[in-house]
């Protein structure tokens, strides 16, 4: 439907008829009476003026003055032919003052007479007074006005009837679209409420996820306090790390899903706001058109509204309005369908994540139980090895005591042999101090005793070294046994107690 901003050509005031236009053109092209002299007296006066001008001496030549440029306008186009016919008066002067309006030569002003206008100006003035153009124009205006009044009311009644039908059809269209918008608004409102429930469920699942994360982290922290030999990446440690990674992965998935739900919730609310705003606009437009349909020329509320024919600042074509209505409803439905799809995937995400966490928790418990069994077996072997080591230490200490006694017994034999040699070296006189067989035998005896003592001392040193090694091994075994006992307490009692509070799969799914 195209809006009417003016009257149709058939309803406008009639134009001038050919006869009236021909009459006006004829009256405008009549020759003027003042264009040239028509009487004998005018010719005689003009001739006398020429003779007087020729009898007088010629004045000195005056340098030409620059003349103003005359622009060809409707008024000056009539005056230019008269300017070309200007001639000086009897006294040889030409009056160019504004009194003459540049229409002719001024008569002379002397001591005998005073004439203000020329004869041509007087005749022109009379023609202007007797001109009947205004009377002809009044006839034309009277004809046009009566014709316009005859057609005005018929045209107005016709346009009012057509516009009433247009307004009624427009009101029906607005009502139809208003019903569609209201239905879409109700559906998107329900979807916003359902998505909000799912968001709360997801937030609850995220809060429950803090418990397995805390259990895994606490188990890792307790196992990190084990002694140095047991700080190994065993099977339980690997499963706990996997559990932590899985919890982090599930948390990231839930966080991403929560962000998607919150973003979709914002989109839903924005679509709900747009559709509600559109519903309000259509309700106001429908009420406005309903009020307009109830108005008539006899209504008490009609007034003059200056500027009402101008289009509004945000007015648009009808095609755009229909496109906007359809597109708004389609966009709202697309947003709602996307929200429904997101809600349908949320339950599967929560159930799968809960099942994964529960399976990983079972694997971790099994790994801890296996680690406890291996540690218990190793601790038993360490205790048996410690008993053997203690027995070896006792035997080695007895051996060391025997070696020390043997070394002490060789001291007397060494003293005897060395005393004998010293007596023979110091107390035999000159020729008697010879290297005889007894002297060589004593030297050999000292040498053998020294070698024997050296060998015994080496054995004693080895025995002491072995004893020190056994003592170190004893200390190491005792430390390992204490470490294994501590590990058993950590894995079997502390971690087992903590992991007994691990949530079930349904709790992890937010149910």
TrEMBL record:
**Pfam families membership:** Tektin
Q: Where are the compositionally biased (Basic and acidic residues) regions?
A: 32-59
What GO terms in the biological process aspect are recorded for it?
A: cilium assembly; cilium movement involved in cell motility
Compartment(s): Cytoplasm, Cytoskeleton, Cilium axoneme
Coiled-coil positions: 178-205, 244-271, 386-420
Pull one GO CC term from this UniProt entry: microtubule cytoskeleton
The protein's UniProt keywords, in alphabetical order, are: Cell projection, Cilium, Coiled coil, Cytoplasm, Flagellum
> Which segments carry the region annotation Disordered?
23-69
The record, for InterPro entries, names:
Tektin-like, Tektins
Tell me its family. Answer: Belongs to the tektin family.
The molecule here is called Tektin
Q: Which gene encodes it?
A: LOC118279151
């Amino acid at each position: 439907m195209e809006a009417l901003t003016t009257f149709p050509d058939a309803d406008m005031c009639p134009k001038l008829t050919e006869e009236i236009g021909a009459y006006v053109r004829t009256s405008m092209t009549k020759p003027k009476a003042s264009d040239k002299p028509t009487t004998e007296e005018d010719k005689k006066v003009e001739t006398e003026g020429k003779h007087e001008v020729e009898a007088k001496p010629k004045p000195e030549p005056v340098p030409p003055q620059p003349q103003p440029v005359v622009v060809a306008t409707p008024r000056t186009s009539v005056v230019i032919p008269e300017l070309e016919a200007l001639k000086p008066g009897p006294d040889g002067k030409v009056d160019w003052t504004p009194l003459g309006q540049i229409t002719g030569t001024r008569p002379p002003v002397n001591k005998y007479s005073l004439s203000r206008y020329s004869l041509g100006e007087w005749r022109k003035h009379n023609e202007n007074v007797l001109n009947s153009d205004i009377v002809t124009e009044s006839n034309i205006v009277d004809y046009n006005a009566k014709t316009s009044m005859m057609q005005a009311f018929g045209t107005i009644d016709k346009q009012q009837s057509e516009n009433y039908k247009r307004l009624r059809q427009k009101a029906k269209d607005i009502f139809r679209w208003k019903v569609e918008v209201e239905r879409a608004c109700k559906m998107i409102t329900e979807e916003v409420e359902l998505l909000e429930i799912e968001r709360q469920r997801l937030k609850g699942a995220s809060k429950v996820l803090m418990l397995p994360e805390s259990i895994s982290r606490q188990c890792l922290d307790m196992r990190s306090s084990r002694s140095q030999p047991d700080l190994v990446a065993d099977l339980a440690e690997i499963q706990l790390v996997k559990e932590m990674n899985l919890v982090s992965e599930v948390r990231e998935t839930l966080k991403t899903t929560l962000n998607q739900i919150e973003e979709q919730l914002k989109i839903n609310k924005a679509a709900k706001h747009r559709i509600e705003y559109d519903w309000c606009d259509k309700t106001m437009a429908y009420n406005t058109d309903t009020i307009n349909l109830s108005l008539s020329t006899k209504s008490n509320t009609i007034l003059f509204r200056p500027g009402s024919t101008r289009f509004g600042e945000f007015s648009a074509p009808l095609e755009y309005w229909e496109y906007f209505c359809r597109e708004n409803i389609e966009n709202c439905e697309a947003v709602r369908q996307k929200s429904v799809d997101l809600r349908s995937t949320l339950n599967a995400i929560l159930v799968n994540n809960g099942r994964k966490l529960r399976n990983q928790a079972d694997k971790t418990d099994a790994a801890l139980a296996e680690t406890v069994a291996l540690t218990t077996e190793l601790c038993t072997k360490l205790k048996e090895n410690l008993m053997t080591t203690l027995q070896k230490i006792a035997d080695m200490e007895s051996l060391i005591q025997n070696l020390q006694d043997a070394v002490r017994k060789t001291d007397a034999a060494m003293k005897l042999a060395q005393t004998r040699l010293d007596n023979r070296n110091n107390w035999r006189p000159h020729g008697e101090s010879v290297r005889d067989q007894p002297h060589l035998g004593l030297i050999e005896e000292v040498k053998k005793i020294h070698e024997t003592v050296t060998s015994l001392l080496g054995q004693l040193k080895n025995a002491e070294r072995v004893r020190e090694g056994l003592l170190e091994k004893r200390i190491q075994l005792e430390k390992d046994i204490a470490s294994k006992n501590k590990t058993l307490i950590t894995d079997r009692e502390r971690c087992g107690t903590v992991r007994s509070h691990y949530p079930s799969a349904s709790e992890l799914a937010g149910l």
